[in-house]
Amino acid sequence: MKILVADDEQLVRWFLERALRKGGHEVITVSNVADACEKLASQDIDLLIIDLRMPEGSGLEVVKKVINSPGKTKVIVCSAFVTAELEDELKSNGVHVLKKPFKLDELVSAVKNCL
C-alpha cells in the first residue's frame, strides 16, 4: 500500500514512516498542505494520513478534496484538535480519526481497517 503522511511535525512524520515501513508499506512524507496536494495529484496514493492543523494551510481542506474526488484514496486524520462534531462528520464520510497522542497499535488498527 502506498501511504502519504502529511504532518508539519518532523518527529511525527519520522515515527509514522518508520512504523508503516515496518508493516511493509511504501511511505511518502510531506510537511505541508501544498506538497500533500501535489503528491495526491501526481501519484496513486492508497492512504492519506494527515494532521488537520499545519502552518501553511488546513489539512481539513485536503481531506474534503479527497472525500469529494472519485479516487480510491482512504483517509486517516491524526490530530489533537478534533471536536466531537467534526469527528462524527469525518466518520460519516469514511474517514478514520486518531486523536493525538495515539498509540502504535491504534495506528496499526486504523491502517488495517483501510485495507
TrEMBL record:
It comes from the Bacteria. PROSITE patterns: RESPONSE_REGULATORY. InterPro entries: Bact_response_regulator, CheY-like_superfamily, Sig_transdc_resp-reg_receiver. The modification 4-aspartylphosphate is found at D51. Residues 2-115 form the Response regulatory domain. Keywords: Phosphoprotein. SUPFAM superfamilies: CheY-like (SSF52172). This is Two component, sigma54 specific, transcriptional regulator, Fis family.
